[in-house]
Amino acid sequence: xxxxxxxxxxxxxxxxxxxxxxxxxxxxxxxxxxxxxxxxxxxxxxxxxxxxxxxxxxxxxxxxxxxxxxxxxxxxxxxxxxxxxxxxxxxxxxxxxxxxxxxxxxxxxxxxxxxxxxxxxxxxxxxxxxxxxxxxxxxxxxxxxxxxxxxxxxxxxxxxxxxxxxxxxxxxxxxxxxxxxxxxxxxxxxxxxxxxxxxxxxxxxxxxxxxxxxxxxxxxxxxxxxxxxxxxxxx
Length: 235
What we know:
Blueprint: E1 4-5, H1 6-12, H2 18-26, E2 30-32, E3 35-36, E4 43-44, E5 50-52, E6 55-57, E7 65-70, E8 98-99, E9 108-114, H3 117-124, E10 132-138, H4 144-152, E11 155-156, E12 159-160, E13 165-172, E14 175-182, H5 189-196, E15 201-209, E16 212-213, E17 222-224, H6 227-234
Helix pairs in contact: 1-2
């Protein structure tokens, strides 16, 4: 097995992000084969004994991080009792990965999948405030008053939504395009909020999660996250 930088090894073991792993090394909290390591360039593999704060660190399974352009008509689950196509049917990897959060059956766009439970918890926990941005095509143009209510927060199913960002980016014969950024992930939240504004969502696509975007992906395609994209999700 090829050796890799210690900070990358720690990140892939789920100890911390690469940047945080570098801090652990600099603080003298990491040992390799019994010796404290404070240099960032040290390389290791699975045959080396790596410890953080005295705890042995091991790779159980390679962490995989994927972004998928989910098409409409695909369910965001590992399996479906009705035999519908799932997001995992679109991805060919040997590791067992799972979607981070969900996109509705009739919503398309960016979906992140991984086997890294720590990252999944970070991105889905309410306290993370991870921004998720969508483009919605509605049948009507919402009023200024409705846009203000949307951005301040509105009551949906008895609960007030968190403040959100919304702007009109185009008005045409097919409808009105809205750019919407939310920090929550309630079931059909954007569709319900638009309904409360008096608009029906005709199409909905998620274009980004945090700073990770669809990039050049086409519907149904996927790609591995770059180191920069992964680091941004951890930060």
